[in-house]
Amino acid sequence: MREWTENDPKAGLLARKQAAILAAARREFLEKGFGDATMAGIAASAGVSVATLYRHAHSKEELFEAVVALRRDPQEIAAGLARIAELPLPEALVFFGEGITGMMVSPEVLAMHRMVIAEAERFPHLGRAVFDAVIGHVTGTLSDFLAGRIGVERANAVAPAFIERVVGDRMVRALLGLPVDTSSGANAARIRSIVAGLLPEAAMAPASSKSKG
User: Fold this and answer.
1) Global pTM?
2) CB 124 within 8 A of CB 108
């Protein structure tokens, strides 16, 4: 996607146009599917010319990847990690796991996954794009967080296993239209059990006074 510097005199206008383009692309992809969505239709929905659209994105694939990447809010992720940085590791992982479960079964993420599944035979590369942007990104973020606690090599093994066990069956249930409880604390006991299996020494460690207060 097109980038610009903060001191560009047109920065505000460019940002507004790109936001409109991404919102329109998301609507078109979800309503029509990737195959039937067109750059002309996205431009019309965004209220820009096709030439302007191509100045922001060179292809429909690039637009799709940018739409998927909107779920990765760096400030939101940084704020979440800051909130759990001082917690004992089991409680930090419960907090992280509940947040990721809620995100993965949110209506927006489910709609995107259903669209990709429907288009998988015609456009198999879409699945990789979504997996890398969502599951891959979340796993990498968790691995980076864990590296300072349990070492890089172990973090790289624990992070994907944790995400798979925490999200796996919940995601399948949600995709099938079955209820998934994501209210605060609803998944805490299940996630603690997962932590105990992956990091038994952390699960047995006494809670800090900060976590008790």
Assistant:
1) 0.78
2) no
